Amino acid sequence: MVNDPDLDVDTAEKYAGVMSRFYGHFNERGTFEVNPMKLAMDNYDFGDSSKDYKREITIPQMREFIQQIDNPITLVVIMLLIKTGIRVGELCNIDMRDVHIDDPRVKDLFPPLRPEIADQPDSIYIEAHTNMQAGQVTNGERRVASNKRKRATIIPIDDELKKVLVFWLAIRPEPQNHPGNPFVTRLIGHVRTQVGDRMSNGRVHTIVTNATEERGWWDSDNSKAMNVSPHYFRHFFTTYMRDRTNDDVFVQFIRGDKGEEAMDDYTHNWGDKVRTTYNKHIYKLLR
């Protein structure tokens, strides 16, 4: 549609919205698992004049939204995104070896951890794009999604995210055909998927937008800028952590942005520079 010379951008976006509602109807009936038009609309820039604008959501509003989530897979997905600022593909690529949770109740569930986080309790390791690309075999498994960050990053886990992750591990289905041992796995199967499969980008998108649509934060008639899709949580994290820390380099470090020399200090003094700053300033959403 967007390449049709006889179709203006606004009309193309409107047609895409109609098709999104069509797929949405069959999603509700269970015919389709993913709404491809919803995914396309959130990832394609239709040229909206307000494309740089993002819906403004306050921390109290986000807290209310989070506290009303009653689905465990929705809660763990959104809490991972909003507490760390990671991308969808990065979430899908997290393996059990990438997560260090200091809690005796879940210790025996984990395989040997990555050496990078073995001495960093309550942390998550997110691999750089050079070592985690679609089609590449990493940790014994061919990946479907790619990581985009320029630098591998160790991100702290605060008390709220830790609580959610411990609960998730109590119900997490064991993967059957994924040698990488994914951390976030499917609770329900579908036509071409089964319980315990690694989460996909499309499935994460559906989980998030179903929740935000119920909240009134996603609608096929809205502009892309007004819809709260998975990438919005990276924007939320960046905006509020920059404001709270007043430290752009720290936020860039957590995001895995291309480094400058100042970032080396965070790498070498992770406990003091990163964990302390993160725990002091990360917003609370469960209380």
TrEMBL record:
InterPro entries linked: DNA_brk_join_enz, Integrase-like_cat_sf, Integrase_catalytic
Gene Ontology BP annotations: DNA integration; DNA recombination
GO molecular function, one term: DNA binding
Keyword hit for Repeat: no
Alphabetically ordered keywords of this record: DNA recombination
Entry annotated with the keyword Hydrolase: no
Occurrences of domain Tyr recombinase (ranges): 52-279
Regions that span the bilayer: none
UniProt cross-references to SUPFAM superfamilies, sorted A to Z: DNA breaking-rejoining enzymes (SSF56349)
Protein name: Integrase family protein
Organism: Halosimplex carlsbadense 2-9-1
Lineage, broadest ranks: Archaea, Methanobacteriati, Methanobacteriota, Stenosarchaea group, Halobacteria
